[in-house]
Amino acid sequence: MRSKKSIAILLGIFSSLFFAVTFVINRLISVGGGHWTWTASLRFFWMLPILLALVIFCKELKPLIQVMIKKPMQWIIWSTVCFGIFYAPLSFAASYGPSWLVAGTWQITIVAGMLIAPIINKTPFRKTISFQALCFSLIVLAGILIMQLSQAKSISYEDLIIGTIPVIISAFAYPLGNRKMMQVANGRLNAKQRTLGMTIASMPFWILLSIYGLSLNELPTESQALQTLVVALCSGVIATCLFFMATDKVRKDEKALASVEATLSTEVVFALIGEIVILKISLPDIYSLIGILLVIIGMMLHSLKK
User: What distance in Å separates the CA atoms of residue 281 and residue 275, rounded to the nearest whole number?
Assistant: First the structure.
């Protein structure tokens, strides 16, 4: 199990590298005037044909369909939670803060995954949640709080709240949807199949969101369409498949699963580097850097924990 956990953690870190593309490009789109409804929905519209072609090429479509038709409503509900309720608020938040701050705040998902596990598995909290893991996660949360307090000096209180609440919603939606879908799939699908199935099942949500965007007289720009294609490839396909592979490997070990989810904290570093290189932002102040360091330390402790 230790070897399996190490491989899962490594996969989680690689997925974080590609996930960080989301935060940087979403901020780039926002700065360029692209509306968040299209930033969110176009990613999944792009993902659908890419994943479909990949799964068909691997001759894995028929088993996926057979699994999906057995529990269609559960697929729709939990795929919408994991993809829709996760990504739409995250895209909205990109309009109100730098990518590294959004990525940092989203690390609440580490604690969220631990808190919802006893509810999903219907087991006592003390048997599911490791006190040691909870302490490490509190270090991560302390880092997030320091980053938020530092950022509060440069933006309005209202923007800070509007940019934070949606990220917290996303932070709970992603592990909830992912864990429920692992139960629904029950190991019968690989990461590519599950990602495609969840993309298909969440399509009603993305169609409704795009209709909402049209009702606001907002249309996607050409650059936004191209940028969301990059996000779809890097984050939607590569990162999601890697992360699902990682969580599937340790799906029966709650402590290892919590450690894999903790690897998402490395997104903060990758997002910060990306924003400095691509958007040419200045370095965060000393307090923000301390916050980022605490997030990284918390993640490392999670990863090294036996």
Answer: 6
Q: In which residue are the tokens 């169609």 written?
A: 207
Other beta carbons less than 10 A from residue 214's beta carbon: 12
Out of 28-42, 62-76, 286-300, pick the least confident: 286-300
281 or 53, which is more confident: 53
Two tokens, residue 281: 């932002």
pLDDT digits (tens, 9 = 90+) for 48-68: 999 999 999 999 999 999 999
Find out whether 251 and 257 touch, Cβ atoms under 8 Å.
Answer: yes
The amino acid sitting at 126 is R
CB atoms < 10 A from the CB of 156, how many?
A: 10
Structural domain boundaries enclosing 288: 2-304
The pTM of the full predicted model, rounded to 2 decimals, is: 0.82
Contacts of 221 (CB under 8 A, 6+ apart): 32, 33, 34
What is the number of structural domains in the chain?
A: 1
pLDDT at 163 over 90: no
Residue 285: phi and psi, rounded to 5, are -70, 175
* Tokens 């605490």 sit on residue: 294
Residues with Cβ within 8 Å of residue 225, at least 6 apart in sequence: 42
- The tokens describing 260, both together, are 């894999």
Longest dimension (CA), the chain: 54
